[in-house]
């Protein structure tokens, strides 16, 4: 295993693993996840120069970067009950854009998180 550049701990981390859906810590090296687990195990991977980030019990989930729109169509339908089809054009149709934005706003305000953290490379 490579040396972790960063360790994020003391959080609620969604793993997307059916067997272990949540963890409390994650180790990252060169922008890639190298280990996920409990605080003690992951903090034991710390080496000189490893940046340590306390999540203070905040929620962390994986993000996706996808240039395709198929994922958007499925996510809008599943998460927000909005159908985005080939005839929709968000840029050309302010009504569709407003509907989706409102559905996202409603969905995110019903999730019981004290604070949302967005991490990008």
Description:
The protein has 121 residues and is of the alpha/beta class. The chain has two domains: 6-60, Urease, subunit C, domain 1 (Roll); 70-110, no CATH class. Helix content is 27%, strand content 21%. The protein has a four-stranded mixed sheet with strand order 5-4-1-6. The protein has a three-stranded mixed sheet with strand order 3-2-7, with no helix packed on it. The two termini are 21 Å apart. The model is unreliable at 86-91 and 117-121 (pLDDT under 50).
- Please, what is the oligomeric state? single chain
User: Number of helical segments?
Assistant: 3
CATH topology of the largest domain: Urease, subunit C, domain 1
Helicity level, as a percent range?
25-40%
Helix-strand pattern: EEEEEHEEHH
Largest sheet: 4 strands, mixed
The largest sheet has its strands arranged as 5-4-1-6
CATH architecture tag of the largest domain:
Roll
Percent range for β-strand residues: 15-25%
- Strand tally: 7
Shape summary: elongated
Radius of gyration: 18 Å
Question: What is the overall pLDDT average?
Answer: 75
Number of spatially distinct domains? 2
Short description, anyone?
With 121 residues, the chain is α/β, with parallel strands linked by helices. Helices cover 27% and strands 21% of the residues.
């Amino acid at each position: 295993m490579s040396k972790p550049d960063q360790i994020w701990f003391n959080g609620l981390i969604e793993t997307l693993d059916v067997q272990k859906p949540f963890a409390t810590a994650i180790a990252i090296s060169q922008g890639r996840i190298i280990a996920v687990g409990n605080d003690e195990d992951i903090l034991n991977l710390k080496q000189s120069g490893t940046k340590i980030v306390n999540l203070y019990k905040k929620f962390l989930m994986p993000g996706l970067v996808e240039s395709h729109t198929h994922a958007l169509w499925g996510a809008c339908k599943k998460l927000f009950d909005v159908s985005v089809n080939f005839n929709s054009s968000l840029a050309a149709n302010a009504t569709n854009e407003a509907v989706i934005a409102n559905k996202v706003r409603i969905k995110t305000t019903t999730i019981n998180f004290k604070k949302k953290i967005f991490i990008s490379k």
